[in-house]
Write a structure and sequence with these properties.
Blueprint (H helix, E strand, L loop, with lengths): L7 E5 L2 H4 L26 E4 L4 E4 L15 H13 L5 E5 L2 H4 L10 H16 L3 E7 L5 H7 L6 H16 L6 E6 L32 H25 L4 E7 L5 E3 L4 H24 L6 H8 L7 H9 L4 E5 L4 E3 L6 E3 L2 E3 L20 H15 L3 E5 L17 H19 L4 E7 L19 E3 L11 E3 L1 H11 L8
Parallel strand pairs: 1-4, 1-14, 4-5, 5-6, 6-7, 7-9, 8-10, 9-13, 13-14
Antiparallel strand pairs: 2-3, 11-12, 15-16
């Protein structure tokens, strides 16, 4: 009654939330460098009437905490020792595209960026952790948006292909597992950050919001992502036959339950699953563009065309495994608006979920939703699954005794892992569990330090002050015990 002997235990972070050093050693800004939280509707850009282009214009009244983050760029060696101290055999982070190609469209790589990541990944390997590396985690170089409009422009396929080929060549032997685009299925909810899309402003309409994007822009980006993903799998297998290339989607939306047996709610929940996950999951894993999208495109008045060559490419070069994030579930009730943020979707409150995370975020906790999600994904795609994000953000600080008690985090992890094990017993090929945020980082959704996920506390606060000192929380030792027993202590 334990997890598989080769189960991947670890944690996950992202470069833009951890590294800081946003303009160091040749790096130029990416999309997350000009927002405070990726749900922001006000990126730090302004329109230059003379050049007819956007340019960076940060708000002096805002704290862009990601610019320094938790200084992982200079502290990764000590931090990786803390991760290894829990018994991690796997660690996920991302490559900031702009460290290798600062503007994104250069032909020559920035060697300082290559050397940084080589040492980072080698450090993981030396400490017994297999790197799982995201090629793009909300980190499209800003220049590609202001100059080209971002992923709605097919030129980005070429720039991306140059970037990933450098990664596969330079990190061969260090990295075996790659993820292509982090939560790219959030494109239609967060087009600026998740989709890397920026509609070039029409000078005749100066009132248009900076971050407004047309549906056609978003669907053009969808087309280009599908082609780029297939190209990535092709390039990865050609350059490094040992490399495994996976997709990474936010899959909390899979656990969208019909609120009741009203057939309209059943069909509505299906539509949410399709829009939320299967739009991308089906082409990435099954190799075809879903036929039900024809109805969607007609209704939205957009044109999306794939050539025969592109369809053949997508069909031939599907991913090797499916990785995903899961945080919470929701319900669908016709007439009730379903909204979304970085944790997932929110519809009508589920009366059967009584376990709530502490305020101010107060998520309804649904561990069974993770088991359900694993089963749905495996039944549909029949490929290895890897949980690369699951965690809980809490507002916590050091108490009078000098410790950090985070018993709710322990409870959250325990219940979700019990359901991962149950899914494995259901027959699901789940290869691992990478907890999101094993060290406190800047929250992606809110752009603050107050929302802490880590087993390791970092002394930094929303106003930017702090010593950056690291300190273990109680959960650090709890997760260590789980890993040492290969999950057996959960199943007694």
């Amino acid at each position: 009654m334990s997890f598989p002997k080769d189960f991947m235990w670890g944690g996950a972070i992202a470069a833009n939330q951890y590294e800081g050093a946003w303009d160091a050693d040749g790096k130029l800004p990416n999309v997350t460098d000009v927002v405070v939280g990726i749900m922001s509707r006000n990126p730090g850009l302004k329109w230059n009437e003379e050049t007819k282009k956007y340019e960076m214009a940060l708000d002096p009244n805002l704290a862009y905490l990601s610019h320094t983050a938790v200084d992982g760029y200079h502290r990764y060696k000590e931090d990786m020792k803390l991760m290894a101290g829990m018994g991690f055999n796997t660690f996920r982070t991302s490559i900031a595209w702009g460290r290798l190609f600062p503007k994104g469209d250069e032909e020559e790589v920035n060697q300082k960026g290559v050397e940084f990541y080589k040492d980072f990944f080698a450090t993981m390997k030396e400490l017994g952790m297999e790197p799982v590396i995201t090629l793009s985690h909300y980190e499209t170089p800003l220049y590609l948006l202001t100059e080209y409009g971002g992923w709605s422009n097919p030129k980005l396929i070429e720039f991306w292909d140059r970037y990933v080929r450098v990664c596969f060549k330079e990190f061969k032997g260090l990295v075996k597992y790659y993820l292509t685009f982090n939560e790219v299925n959030a494109l239609f909810r967060m087009p600026f950050v998740a989709g890397g899309v920026l509609t070039i402003k029409d000078p005749a309409d100066p009132t248009k919001p900076v971050d407004s994007t047309t549906l056609q822009d978003q669907w053009d980006a969808y087309h280009n992502f599908l082609v780029a993903n297939a190209n990535t799998v092709k390039a990865g297998h050609e350059i490094d036959p040992d490399a495994k290339i996976g997709c990474m989607l936010t899959c909390s939306g899979i656990a969208t339950y019909p609120y009741n047996c009203n057939p309209k709610n059943i069909l509505g929940a299906l539509d949410v699953q399709r829009e939320g996950v299967f739009y991308f999951g089906d082409p990435f894993c099954l190799g075809y563009v879903p036929t039900y999208l024809n109805k969607v495109w007609k209704k939205q008045g957009v044109t999306v065309e794939f050539t025969d060559e592109e369809r053949a490419l997508i069909k031939e070069y599907t991913v090797d495994f499916f990785s995903f994030s899961y945080y919470r579930s929701t319900t669908y009730d016709v007439g009730v608006n379903v909204t979304g943020d970085t944790g997932g979707l929110t519809g009508r409150e589920n009366p059967y979920l009584v376990d709530k995370a502490p305020k101010p975020w107060g998520w309804a906790v649904d561990p069974e939703g993770l088991r359900y999600t694993l089963n749905i994904l495996y039944d549909r795609y029949h490929m290895p699954l890897l949980i690369v994000e699951n965690g809980i953000g809490l507002d916590e600080n050091i108490n009078e005794e000098g410790t950090i008690e985070d018993s709710f985090r322990e409870h959250y992890i325990d219940e979700h892992l019990k359901n991962v094990h149950a899914a494995i017993e259901d027959g699901v090929d789940c290869r691992g569990y990478l907890y999101w945020g094993p060290i406190d980082v800047v929250s992606a959704g809110t752009g603050e330090m107050k929302k802490r996920y880590g087993f390791v506390y970092v002394d930094r606060f929303n106003d930017g002050h702090g010593t950056l000192e690291r300190k273990f929380k109680k959960s650090y030792y709890h997760y260590k015990d789980i890993i040492e027993s290969n999950g057996e202590i959960l199943l007694k």
